[in-house]
Design goal:
It contains 15 helices and 51 strands. With 791 residues, the chain is α/β, with parallel strands linked by helices. The N terminus is likely disordered.
């Protein structure tokens, strides 16, 4: 289980070396009056001149292709070599200990030899042939690898969204608001402009870094172009997040699927929507007919895989993220290699086709209690099983598979078609198509989830207080190597699952759509909108809802995946955590990795790694409560993006660490709240607008009297070449934090680069900070941080 090895953030020594007591603030800050300056919230982060410049990138940095650890008193231990890398070609093996490079000793008890070795290899550049003295099985040998370039020149262009260009940002800002850009104002300080320019340039360079086991010169196969765009345009981060949010607020469900595909750099031909009028029998018949082209599209997705490769991928992919399962690094590498043979476009084309047919079925406005349905005409592809059951009465319907008000059961080659009446119906066995006309129903089956035997599964429930309760994984609107759709039109429903449930996509597209009612969603992990090589989406349109999970839930995007949880109305409760301890503080903390979380596979203790995806949680209305722990609430980990946007209501956010707008290891984290008197609390810190290790973290609250409570490294902190911003545009706010917080920048321990930390309060007559901060002043802190207190 890779989760146990991913999260060892090298943080402790950075914190202890750089912490400064708050009483030093008054002596170190340089104040600049902003009394007569008006900053526009719309243009606030606009950066006119200072930006990333590809021409300044040193593409010839050397790369050797090993995963290494410090071997105390001996040198550098080779833990793993990349297949086809310079190290492997030179004969280096796992277990080798490098004691010298070009006769320079590499023995160090503190681990600084790793940094020196890395810097030496990069400085020598591609084509260089260093002499490495190696200790192997007690014998001293020499290896001479010919280095290749660390950085890739071929990078995908940004997504095809015209609003995601710097020029458009500037144009939009000029039209929307009046007032000066805050970023342009602070850049008038020459020293600060130089510091920011260096940091922005360094973060942008991460776009060209190869994956851990990649030896060819092709573009990164897993990196999303929107991630690259954000890394090279970090001050556009919040605006980029809003644009992504709006894509999923303003579009139909089919339109949202199209937007998700674009963000995954997947292109497909959306089929023209044709509206059909007619009775329910005809509408369901059209859906059944269109299952055939959907299955064909899904087959094409995996056509490049052999049968053995498909089976391996099908059985192994979920092991990367399920805590209770284990996967060897070699098998993880094979999963990632095989994934490159999969063409995701057919999944998106197939699911949009099914969505159109579901809309036709929902348009039926006849009396469902008087509806009589006959057996359907099966296309040739679906034939092969002629078993049809039509119960003679409500009480007569039922067997071991389905019971209660069963109107029709019809076999097909990919699963059963089941029609339930307006009374209570019990669904025990899996089905390809379920249409339930009403009643308080019970589902213990797949309920609109696909798999190897059922590549397309659709479940539509018209009304009733229903219970979806499955003791297994891959249920309730999950697309596992196919497409799965569950739509519940009306009622107070309960959804109970385990792993990969309630709108999950695993090499597939899975949708759960609940249109009305006070609903309860519960699962163990990997549910409520998660995507790993595909799309998983949960949309709840109305009601006061509860979302409960342990880990990886409520809007999580893994490699080449998007996970979305959208709640449109109601006072909602979100909880993740409480089961899987985090190794940093296992007696007090748990991993959440949820609530708008982007997640990549960081090569931490193995050479194998892959960039992450996009995790989105959008709550449109209501006073909501969010409870998370480590990694939650608009955070990203390793070349990914996590977004949490709450539009209205007085909300409460509780978390612990790496949360509330935190970008960790070249990732982007955004938390945006657009209304209400909100409360943000992190019991540890490294949160509330924090960027670490070329990561970017933004927390932006546009209005309300808010309270922010954190511990260390919070509320606008940029560490190890990262950018962290907390911006509050309106209201009388309270900021509570401890050391190294509230607009704090840390110098890098490995490079001559300083992070960017900003705490920016743009309006408020009586804001409270940890120190007495004079109003209408901008403070340039000696450590490179910024603190703005604008009345």
């Amino acid at each position: 289980m890779v989760i146990k090895i991913l999260y060892r953030v090298i943080l402790f020594c950075t914190l202890t070396v750089n912490m400064l007591p708050h009483h030093a603030f008054a002596k170190e800050a340089v104040p600049v009056s902003v009394r007569d300056v008006s900053f526009s919230p719309e243009n606030f982060f606009e950066l006119s001149e200072t930006g990333f410049d590809k021409e300044k990138v040193h593409f010839n940095k050397g790369w050797i292709g090993i995963f290494m650890e410090n071997e105390k008193d001996k040198g550098i231990l080779v833990v793993e070599t990349t297949k086809g890398s310079p190290a492997e070609k030179a004969g280096m093996k796992t277990g080798d200990i490098i004691t010298k490079i070009n006769n320079e000793p590499l023995v160090d008890n503190e681990g600084k030899n790793l940094i020196r070795f890395k810097n030496s290899i990069e400085t020598m550049g591609a084509g260089a042939v260093p002499t490495l003295t190696v200790l192997r099985d007690g014998n001293v040998i020499e290896c001479r690898p010919e280095l290749i370039a660390k950085l890739l020149k071929n990078v995908k262009k940004p997504v095809s969204l015209p609003v995601l260009s710097p020029k458009t940002f500037l144009t939009q800002g000029a039209k929307k608001g009046q007032g000066q850009s805050f970023m342009d104002f602070v850049m008038e300080n020459r020293a600060y402009r130089k510091m920011c320019s260096d940091t922005i340039q360094r973060i942008g360079e991460e776009v060209y870094v190869r994956e851990g086991y990649q030896t060819n010169e092709a573009s990164n196969p897993f990196r999303l172009s929107i991630i690259d765009y954000s890394l090279q345009n970090p001050m556009n981060t919040y605006e980029t997040g809003k644009i992504i949010r709006d894509l999923f607020l303003e579009e139909s469900i089919a339109g949202q699927v199209l937007s998700a595909a674009k963000l995954l750099d997947v292109e497909f031909s959306e089929r023209e929507e044709i509206n059909h009028e007619g009775d329910l029998q005809a509408s369901i018949q059209r859906l059944i007919n269109d299952i055939v082209p959907c299955v064909s599209l899904i087959k094409e997705v995996f056509d490049a895989l052999t049968e053995d490769e498909f089976d391996f991928l099908y059985q192994s992919a979920q092991k990367i993220w399920v805590q209770e399962e284990t996967i060897e690094p070699s098998d993880m590498a094979r999963v990632l290699e095989l994934s490159q043979k999969v063409d995701l476009s057919g999944l998106f084309e197939a699911v949009t086709l099914m969505l159109h047919r579901i809309e036709d079925i929902k348009k039926y406005d006849g009396d469902l209690t008087q509806t009589a349905l006959q057996p359907f005409t099966l296309p040739a592809f679906l034939q092969g099983a002629d078993n049809i059951k039509i119960p003679s009465g409500k009480e007569a319907g039922g067997d071991d598979d389905y019971a209660g008000d069963v109107l029709l059961v019809q076999d097909t080659s990919i699963g059963k078609i089941v029609i339930g009446g307006t009374g209570a119906t019990y669904y025990y066995n899996d089905a390809a198509v379920i249409v339930d006309l009403g009643g308080n129903d019970y589902y213990s089956n797949n309920a609109g989830a696909s798999g190897k035997e059922i590549p397309v599964s659709v479940c539509i429930d018209f009304s009733g207080n229903d219970t979806y309760n499955a003791a297994k994984s891959f249920v309730q609107g999950t697309g596992r190597f196919g497409i799965g759709i569950l739509e519940d039109v009306k009622g107070d429903d309960k959804y109970l699952g385990r792993d990969f449930a309630q709108g999950a996509g695993l090499f597939g597209v899975g949708l759960l759509l609940d249109n009305e009612g006070d609903d309860f969603y519960s699962g163990n992990a990997l549910n409520s909108g998660v995507g790993f090589f595909g799309l998983g989406q949960l949309i709840d349109a109305n009601g006061n809802d509860v979302y409960f999970s342990r880990q990886f839930s409520q809007g999580v995007g893994f490699t080449k995946g998007i996970g979305i949880l959208e709640d449109d109305n109601g006072n909602d409760f979100y909880f993740t955590g409480g089961k899987y301890p985090d190794f940093r503080d296992p007696e007090k903390s748990f991993q959440s990795m949820s609530q708008g979380m982007g997640m990549g596979i960081r090569p931490e203790t193995t050479i194998v790694g892959a960039s992450g995806g996009i995790g989105i949680l959008i709550d449109k209305k209501g006073s909501d409560r969010y409870y998370g722990d480590y990694f939650s609430q608009g955070s990203g980990y390793y070349f990914s993006m996590g977004l949490l946007f709450d539009s209205e209501g007085s909300d409460t956010y509780y978390a612990s660490r790496y949360a509330q707008g935190a970008g960790i290891h070249s990732a982007i984290g955004i938390l945006g709240d657009n209304g209400g008197d909100d409360k943000y609390e992190c019991s540890f810190g490294v949160s509330q607008g924090c960027g670490h290790d070329t990561g970017i973290g933004f927390l932006v609250d546009t209005m309300g009297n808010d309270i922010y409570t954190g511990e260390i490294v919070s509320q606008g902190a940029g560490m190890e070449k990262g950018i962290g911003v907390l911006a509050d545009f309106q209201g009388d706010d309270v900021y509570r934090a401890k050391d190294s917080s509230q607009g704090f920048s840390f110098p890098s321990k490995t490079e001559e680069i300083t992070g960017i930390g900003m705490l920016l309060d743009n309006q408020g007559e009586s804001d409270v900070f940890c120190d007495v901060v004079q109003g209408d002043y901008l403070f340039y802190r000696a450590n490179g941080g910024l603190l703005l207190n604008k009345k």
